[in-house]
Amino acid sequence: xxxxxxxxxxxHLGFFRNNFGVREPYxxxxxxxxxxxxxxxxxxxxxxxxxxxxxxxxxxTTSGSLLAY
Length: 69
Fold this sequence. Notes:
This is UTP23 small subunit processome component. The chain has one domain: Rossmann fold (3-Layer(aba) Sandwich). 52% of the residues lie in helices and 14% in strands. It contains 3 helices and 2 strands. It has a two-stranded parallel ribbon with strand order 1-2. The longest helix is centred in the N-terminal third of the chain and has 18 residues. The radius of gyration is 13 Å and the shape is globular. 1% of the residues are buried.
């Protein structure tokens, strides 16, 4: 990941931690469209999201989603 993208993610996560009490494990809500786009782009969400958010994540899908991640 590029350094500037990592710095921005760290800055935004710090804001949400301090102001809204967001903490690990981060619960990320995914819908079917997002999952399909990730599969088409060959992106491994389980591996990439924890790296991007620099912490433990828990992936959740919407009830209408056909893909179970």
